[in-house]
Amino acid sequence: MAVTGPEIERLIQLLSKLPGLGPRSARRAVLQLIKKKETLLAPLAEAMAVAVDKACICTICGNVDTQDPCTICRDGARDPSAICVVEDVGDLWALERAGVHKGRYHVLGGVLSALDGVGPNDLHIGALIERVQKGEVKEIILAMNATVDGQTTAHYITDRLEGTGVAVSRLAHGVPVGGELDYLDDGTLAAAMKSRRPF
Amino acid sequence: MAVTGPEIERLIQLLSKLPGLGPRSARRAVLQLIKKKETLLAPLAEAMAVAVDKACICTICGNVDTQDPCTICRDGARDPSAICVVEDVGDLWALERAGVHKGRYHVLGGVLSALDGVGPNDLHIGALIERVQKGEVKEIILAMNATVDGQTTAHYITDRLEGTGVAVSRLAHGVPVGGELDYLDDGTLAAAMKSRRPF
Questions:
Q1: Interface touch A37/B55, C-beta < 8 Å
Q2: Which of A35, A129, B92, B111 has the most crowded Cβ, counting Cβ within 10 A?
Q3: Residue of A8, A49, A96 lying closest to B51 (CB–CB)
Q4: B126 Cα to chain A: minimum distance (Å)
């Protein structure tokens, strides 16, 4: 039975496809949007239209931006000799928020996964090797998630980079800052113990 | 430090104002939207623009729709003699999904709350009394949330309707269907016991 107009039903249906929103929260969001039509719905519609028009993927690193090459690849103050390899754009943004990497990035677009049928040709690994072969790169920092697939991908990339002469490193495993030992899994504790540092 | 274009930052910032989305989930949502630019972002931008243009509040009952009076108030098959009074449009939609009310609705736009400074004049109570005084209404069903403020509002409306001759009822309190007694609060159990029915 129709409760509201078909245009509003369609908006709810589209919003509920966003990650983190189900049908119920999409309905709540739409009611909120219509309540704040001028201050929220109209600017959001406008911002989305602009994004449709301008958003693009950086052809060098795979970052999402409104210019190509992206803000990071254009930034001359960044060290072009260190490339941090991440699974997804979200990981790149997370590292940037932390401000821990002053070089460039390379987004793979996923990880190798036998189960999901993702092979090396489905990821941007070839483009990474090409960037390395251009000669400017001295270090590759592998910042994949600490999952089995992430680490498999890291191993694969290390193999592919053999003979190019670049240094390959990966993020340290260990106790998260603020973490309590009692709540950590055995694997993390073992990694933290193995990589212990002089105090 | 800029990671992406200002237009995308603005989209993230606006999306994070939606209920149920924080900055992190808004970023995930935006990445998803840009990944599915043609199938999700563009239709969503279009649907929002249409909603800006068409969405309105029904001047009779307060429902959100794209026409005024709304779909429900226009529907001749609905019983105009029974009005179900709800706090918000979301509650109206919830009752419609359940398909349990075949009459009309009246959205108050909130509940009386001394703490939040919400008085009778801040709610659409006057309009409800006017609808009743037109004479067609025979029953008012109070479907406020089972909170203290909701029940206070229900009592207030009952007082205001005194002398108009309409029957006033409220939703039953009791054990939710599928609920387990062990997990229910004392108030619900007491209400369920008090309103027990012959089996």
A1: yes
A2: B92
A3: A8
A4: 21
Classified as helix, coil or strand, A141 is strand
**Smallest Cα distance from A6 to chain B, Å:** 8
Q: Which two tokens stand for residue B98?
A: 């359940």
Residues B175 and B192 sit within 8 Å (Cβ to Cβ): yes
Using an 8 Å CB-CB cutoff, list chain A residues near B3.
Answer: 63, 71-72, 92-93, 96-97
Which residues of chain B are within 8 Å of residue A66 when distances are taken between CB atoms?
4-8
Contacts of residue A20 in chain B, CB cutoff 8 Å? 20-21, 25, 28-29
Contact A51 B11 (CB under 8 A): yes
Crossing angle of helices A23-35 and B89-98, in 10° steps, is 140
Q: Which amino acid is at A12?
A: I
What residue type is assigned to position A190 of the chain?
A
The ipTM value here is 0.84
Q: Which residues contact B32 (CB under 8 A, 6 or more apart)?
A: A18, A19, B40
Pick the closest to residue A142 from A165, A177, A176, A166 (CA basis): A166
Of A177, A179, A178, A171, nearest to A195 by C-alpha is A171
Q: For residues A168 and A161, is the Cβ–Cβ distance under 8 A? A: yes
Burial class (CB in 10 A: 0-12, 13-18, 19+), B167: exposed
Question: B48 and A33 in contact by Cβ < 8 A?
Answer: yes
pLDDT at residue A91 in the model: 94
Q: What is the DSSP track for B113-155?
A: BTTTTB-GGGTTHHHHHHHHHTS---EEEE---SSHHHHHHHH
Nearest to B5 among A52, A67, A92 (CB): A67
Q: Whole-angstrom Cα distance, residue A18 to residue B25? A: 9
CA distances from A49 to A33, B49, B51 (A): 16, 9, 14
Contact B90 A50 (CB under 8 A): no
Q: Is the pLDDT of residue B58 over 70?
A: yes
The tens digit of pLDDT for each residue in B110-157 reads: 999 999 999 999 999 999 999 999 989 999 999 999 999 999 999 999
Give the whole-angstrom CA distance, residue B12 versus residue B23. 7
